[in-house]
Amino acid sequence: MFVDTARIFVKSGDGGDGAISFRREKYVPLGGPDGGDGGNGGDVILVSDENSTTLMDFTYRKKYKADNGENGAGSKCFGRKGNDLYIKVPMGTVVKDVNTDKIMADLSHPGDKYIVCKGGKGGKGNVRFTTPTRQAPEFAEPGMPGEERYILLELKVLADVGLIGFPNVGKSTLLSVVTKATPKIANYHFTTLNPNLGVVNIPGINSFVIADIPGIIEGASSGVGLGIKFLRHIERTRLLIHVVDISQIEGRDAFSDFVKINEELKNYDVKLWNRPQIIAANKADMLYDDKIFDDFQKKVSELGYGKVFKISAATKRGVDDLMKEVARRLSEIPITDMEIDEADKFVPEDKKFTYTIRKEENTYIVEGSFVDRLLASVNVNDYNELRYFYKVLRNKGVMEDLIKMGIKDGDTIKLNDFQFEYLL
Fold first, then answer.
1. What is the pLDDT of residue 189?
2. For residue 287, which of 86, 328, 333, 420 sits 20 to 30 Å off, Cα-Cα?
3. Obg domain: from which residue to which, for each copy (predicted)?
4. Residue 409 known to bind ligand
């Protein structure tokens, strides 16, 4: 089963908490602090795997979480770092952040790695908070939470050449005769429902990967048929073989079909429309009048396209010459990574602890992640820790902001469930 998109939830590990611990030693206050730091949480890392060709595994498992870091311990023992979680994805996978729809990474080379969620930092143990005037701190830092997000995985087939054209023009037959691929072939439209890949190995030319891209019809760029689902797979190709049915046995006009397919490419992405094309007029063995081919070639040349190859995939007539021309053109086209506009790139936000202050009558309410972390770090019922609490409020500018807002002597300051009276 070919699956080329998947939406999954990923979460890195939380950092371990720092330890509050004291060693038992004579003449050392409270035995001396020796609480170690917590370990960092594990990262979630995507890795491109050249042995994988589909995102099918992600249809069964939707949530992925790395290990948390271990808590610190006494005797200055640091907590163990959480194990990183490695998730294998097929080569050619583009990773997007669901919330912003920005591109996080393009994993198109063997072994490419990307940290999609970074583990939370471990908290500091109480040994880190000793000062000449605070020799026995009874508080420690909690670990930082890990990151979490929904991501979208989009597989874009890695091929040098893409076969495009209306259904039933012989793309799959052409693929089968130039490679060892065995696509389903039948005389009805939409026989091919998934992209098929094969390697062209013809004596005298460099090998290359060719893909049969199904379902592109008129209106595909706006969601008609299957085309919108598979147009993305052309994005990585360096060259397109545009296959038309020159026999016209189905009553279709080859030139009209050619124009319509190119219009769909242009509507989807102008870069695809500008991609080099080689035109293959297929089913020439069933052509009853050579004038049809001559007229087609003349109209195509007037649009600025080069030679049209007259072929029959069924009888292999002209196929070798077509493939040799494809190999020659590929040798002139450099291999480049997928271009990602700066506006489409995902930029991770720095994890900052913030707060907001609002006033309700004579009460100033301080809220936010900064408040949550500070209250988790200290015991406000302990005098020494309370002094540290006030010091942090001053150093982080909270008290200065309160003064700017007009706080007066006797007003109440509330941080979550903890409140106290402001004194000048």
1. 46
2. 328
3. 1-158
4. no
